[in-house]
Design brief:
GO terms for molecular function: DNA binding; RNA binding. It is found in: Nucleus. Its main location: nucleus. By secondary structure, this protein is an all-alpha fold. Among the domains are: 94 residues, no CATH class; 51 residues; 43 residues. It contains nine helices and no strands. The protein is flat, with a radius of gyration of 48 Å.
């Protein structure tokens, strides 16, 4: 009976016996000839050596013979297995280190990109907010000046009585109130209606005319307005919206739509005409068939009477 006493010693003896048997096997019978060749290549490409030039094949045979006769290369199967195991472990360690380096590099790059993007977005948002505040302030000042001028002209021209003056002053005071200040049109609850291309083209042309007039009167303000519009356009594009701000392209789009509409109208008219024609032909055929049946029936009756 086997016992646990001396189990380690017996396992060691068996291992040494197996190793000694392995050392008796020549490596050429235990390993494949080309260590770099895979099993698939040997199995599915048996004629691969035929494609190698004869001179190269001859040199390879000489080199293999020299290595075979070299006493330093006479290693046992066990030694070769240990070397192969070490080589595989080194390759795995190297791959692991490369993967770790790549992961660390990607994380560093992502952190840098995130920091740059956050900084750029913060700067752009601050600049946009400051530009909008300045433009709103200038617009409010202009509206106040215009309202003041209108109120003064109304008071001078229409001052017929004290009551009328009082009513006009009350009306002007109401109109000059800070109603528009602090109101964000974009954030209000109004429903955004879709503008067709024709109205959009007219609107763009009016805007171009106004900007050209503003460039002559106040170039700095015109430049600020153009910068603001450029930022608004960029934000809309970033949100996935299509920005139509080129009158020439809009004109082409309108022309294409008109041509397409005419073609669809023509196709629809042709369709109606063909349907009406088909119905008329079917009705004519039906009438002829009914008439032929009646004639055949009458003829049959006449023949029976005879």
């Amino acid at each position: 009976m086997w016992s646990l006493d001396g189990l380690e010693g017996r396992l060691k003896e068996h291992s040494e016996f197996i190793d000694s048997l392995m050392c008796l096997i020549p490596p050429k019978h235990y390993f494949k000839n080309d260590p770099n060749a895979s099993d698939d290549e040997e199995k599915f490409q048996p004629n691969k050596k035929k494609r190698i030039p004869k001179q190269v094949l001859k040199e390879q045979k000489k080199q293999a013979k020299r290595q075979k006769l070299d006493p330093n290369n006479l290693k046992t199967v066990q030694e070769l297995q240990i070397e192969k195991l070490h080589k595989i472990q080194q390759e795995k360690q190297k791959e692991k280190e490369q993967k770790d380096d790549e992961v660390n590099k990607e994380e560093d790059d992502e952190d840098e990109d995130d920091d740059e993007i956050e900084y750029d977005v913060d700067v752009k948002i601050e600049k946009k907010d400051s530009d909008e505040e300045q433009i709103e302030k200038d617009t409010d000042d202009e509206e106040e000046e215009e309202n003041d001028k209108e109120s003064q002209s109304d008071l001078v021209d229409g001052a017929e009585s004290d009551e009328d003056d009082k009513n006009k002053i009350i009306t002007v005071a109401k109109n000059n109130g800070d109603i528009k200040k602090g109101v964000d049109i974009k954030k209000s609850g109004s429903v955004k209606r879709k503008i067709d291309d024709v109205h959009l083209k007219v609107k763009l042309q009016d805007k171009i005319v106004k900007i050209g007039r503003l460039k002559r009167l106040d170039p700095e303000k015109a430049a600020e307005l153009q910068v603001k519009e450029a930022w608004d356009k960029a934000f809309l594009k970033a949100q996935g919206e299509k920005v139509k701000d080129d009158p020439k392209l809009l004109a082409k789009t309108i022309k294409k739509k008109i041509i397409k509409k005419r073609k669809s109208e023509k196709a629809w008219e042709d369709r109606i005409e063909s349907v009406e024609k088909s119905m008329a032909e079917r009705q004519k055929t039906r009438t002829e068939n009914i008439k032929a049946r009646i004639d055949a029936k009458n003829k049959k009756k006449k023949n029976k009477r005879k």
